[in-house]
Amino acid sequence: MSHRQTETRERPLLKLLLGSVCISFAPIFIRLADVSPDSAGFYRMMFASLSLLILIKLRKENLNMARRPKLLLILAGVFLSIDFMCWHRSIGLIGPGLSTLLGNFQIFFTALFSWLFFQQRISRLFILAVAMALCGLLLITGGDWQVLQPGYKLGLLFGVLTALFYSGYILLLKQALNDRSAQGVPSMLIVSIATTLLLALITPVTGGSFAIPDSESLFALIGAGVISSTIGWSLISTAIKQVQATIAGLVLLLQPTLALIWDVLLFDRPTGPMEIFGVLSILSAIYIGTYRKESV
Fold first, then answer.
1. DSSP secondary-structure letter at 66?
2. Could you report the per-residue pLDDT of 153-178, keeping only the tens digit for each?
């Protein structure tokens, strides 16, 4: 194999790796921003919208799109808004690592909805993956629901709801992108604008403020919008179709894994052997679930 061929094959994988790293910092940026959960979502998507618009202008991409995918993308933005409302609350209650790990349970909800609405098969391997994920979660939480603090329980619930609404977002986005008129980056711009507008309406209703108290919060919100959203999404969306499905699923596990590592390093999250084993069980389950879905 020539050097040029090797380089061509490695470039999409490198983009996928870099994209996963960028997105892994999203919960860290949200944790560092001293604003309300819904305000954080609003600013994240506002900065993402602005940077996506600049990227589209630089690439000279076409913003024209058929009506149906456009409506699906707006609806996807609604689901993403609710996802952010749940996820950002979960980050504050149980930390960036575990909340992100729970958010990746979307793979199971996505498969369930695909079975219910699109008649996709659910295999025994997938059922095993669900069991592994639940066992891993029990190991992380200690297995005794009664002794957990109310705030921790609420954080776990918000984490599961994050996965539920994110799966709805994923399915709607896929349906929209099936239309030839819908391109990746312009589609994400529509989602971002819809999410920004909805969270702009929701933030004052839920008692949030649009005030950014300090420069650290401002830079964290810009990081969440530009680095984690625009750069991360763009790298992954342009590379994922060029990488073998099983490898892509494995690489994308970097996102929750790194989020947990950043949580331990930056916020001193206590992590014992049982928690580590639980995390490994969940990551393995998510990978099996990803492989099952891609092989259908």
1. -
2. 999 999 999 999 999 999 999 899 88
